[in-house]
Design goal:
Elements lengths: L2 H9 L6 E3 L9 E15 L2 E15 L2 H17 L3 E10 L4 E13 L4
Parallel strand pairs: 1-2
Antiparallel strand pairs: 2-3, 3-5, 4-5
Length: 114
């Protein structure tokens, strides 16, 4: 299964739209993700044996209670799927009055599994 499919399937049960790169819907609460780096995580005999994926997950909502629920849900679900958390921070979009949580994770996958 691709890293993109793993992220999507891990986050879908949170009950909000989950999209790769760009959200085009009308919901005020959604999750967007993208990979900001992909690199070799393990090389043997001049061949890449595992790929490291660095993913950023953005939670967008106008509802503070959803903000907290989704922050915890994203962390729990991706860690359970084998991701390591590398950091997170809070933003607030003044123009749209949207809470924006940025969470970053790392995932290593054997090239045979991709």
């Amino acid at each position: 299964m691709s890293a993109r499919a793993i992220v999507t399937s891990a986050l879908k049960p949170l009950g909000v739209p989950v999209v790769f790169l760009k959200y085009r819907g009308a919901e005020e609460t959604y999750i967007r993700f993208f990979f900001y780096n992909e690199s070799s995580a393990l090389t043997a005999d001049d061949s890449e044996e595992a790929t490291g994926y660095y993913v950023q997950v953005d939670v967008f909502t106008k509802d503070p209670s959803e903000y907290a629920r989704l922050e915890d849900g994203v962390k729990d679900r991706l860690i359970s799927a084998g991701f390591g958390r590398s950091g997170q921070y809070d933003l607030y979009e003044n123009e749209t009055e949207i809470y924006h949580k940025v969470l970053r994770f790392y995932y290593a996958q054997n090239t045979e599994e991709e």
